[in-house]
Recover the amino acids of this structure.
């Protein structure tokens, strides 16, 4: 079946540091890939997406590139802020429908 | 601008008690979902309803039942709660028009503790 694996957390960075959160996936066919973010006390919200190989999703300074050859969708940001502290989830969508499979989530804490 | 509303936000149960988590969305979405979130395991799909009148099992359906009452509402019932069902539960919805874009809209979550 489909699966998503994220780098182990938690991740703690200083403000303005570079962020990478690794995500790899296993899927049949050609899934769409997503990053969701969960701020404290809130539900998840879509951060960015990529629907085909070599697509780059971007939003709020975050970027991720769909790499089919390495089955990866790593999340990056050049300079993190305290307000980026949250849990980040990588997810994939089956090509046959609208169900999402989520990774285990990575807790990010950014210190001033 | 309510979006997806879940009730209750917090609940403590004793083993064997029953309860229902309520979810309503005001975005006219066709599809609705119930997920549970556990530390180190991410979100796992319990049940979903692709459209009004249909429900299907997800990854972890055992111990739960659901009802798609109408297009707006999708409830999750625990008939006989067990400590293993201690978790944070999220309801979500999506519009079939956006199928294959992956955008789910989530509620704020319901934290359930079973003693």
């Amino acid at each position: 079946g489909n699966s998503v694996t994220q780098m182990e957390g938690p991740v703690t960075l200083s403000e303005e540091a570079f962020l990478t959160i690794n995500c790899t996936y296993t899927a049949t066919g050609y899934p769409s890939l997503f990053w969701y973010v969960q701020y404290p006390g809130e539900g998840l919200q879509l951060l960015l997406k990529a629907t085909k190989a070599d697509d780059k999703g971007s939003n709020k300074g975050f970027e991720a590139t769909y790499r089919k050859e390495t089955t990866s969708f790593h999340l990056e940001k050049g300079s993190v802020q305290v307000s980026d502290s949250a849990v980040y989830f990588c997810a994939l969508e089956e090509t046959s429908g609208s169900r999402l499979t989520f990774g285990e989530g990575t807790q990010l804490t950014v210190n001033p | 601008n309510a979006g997806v509303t879940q009730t209750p936000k917090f609940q403590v149960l004793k083993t064997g008690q029953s309860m229902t988590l309520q979810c309503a969305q005001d975005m006219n979405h066709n599809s609705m979902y119930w997920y549970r979130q556990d530390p180190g395991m991410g979100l796992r799909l319990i049940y979903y309803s692709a459209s009004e009148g249909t429900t299907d099992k997800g990854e972890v359906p055992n111990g739960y039942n659901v009802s798609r009452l109408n297009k707006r509402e999708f409830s999750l019932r625990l008939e006989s709660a067990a400590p293993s069902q201690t978790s944070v539960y999220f309801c979500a919805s999506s519009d079939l028009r956006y199928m294959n874009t992956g955008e789910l809209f989530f509620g704020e979550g319901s934290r359930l503790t079973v003693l």
